[in-house]
Amino acid sequence: MSIFVRAIAWLLAAAVTFATLGPPSLRPHSDLGQDGEHALAFILVGLAFGLAYRRRRPAVAAISVALIGLLELMQLWAPGRHARLEDFVVDAATACVGFALAAVADWAITRFRVNSAITSEGPAE
């Protein structure tokens, strides 16, 4: 399962990289607006990487924020793109929200498994 989740995480990262640095005409657009599109994309990236790399989540989150900054700076050399501090803040913050959601999901799943194990054992004699 973790190979599958890791593949999805890396595919999402590749898609976000292409959308960020690729030709503006090929970038997907929605009714969410620019900040909403950024937020949705990076929440999904953070969630996927948070689930894919559970044991190293804090380190992966920190590396992700650094790479998001690098990705934003790379737009200085991409034709038709503009590096903006606001985009970096939205992207990094929402990626961290995605990592936090992954941690909450792990906690909930663990708690459910523990409660399930306790109830399936039945009452103590």
Q: Tally of extended strands?
A: 0
| Residue fraction in strands | under 5%
Helical residues, percent: over 70%
Q: How would you classify the helix and strand content by structural class?
A: mainly alpha
Question: What oligomeric state best describes the polypeptide chains here?
Answer: single chain
Principal-axes shape call: elongated
Mean pLDDT: 89
Q: What series of H and E elements makes up the topology? A: HHHH
The parts where pLDDT drops under 50 for at least 5 residues are none
Distance between the termini: 38 Å
Overall domain count: 1
Give the biggest sheet: none
Taking Cα atoms only, what radius of gyration do you get, to the nearest Å?
18 Å
Q: How many helical elements?
A: 4
Structure write-up:
- The chain is an all-alpha fold.
- The chain has one domain.
- 76% of the residues lie in helices and 0% in strands.
- The chain is built from four helices and no strands.
- It has helices at 2-21, 33-52, 57-74, 85-121.
- The longest helix has 37 residues, at 85-121.
- The protein starts with a helix and ends with a helix.
- 21% of the residues are buried.
- The model has no long low-confidence stretch (mean pLDDT 89).
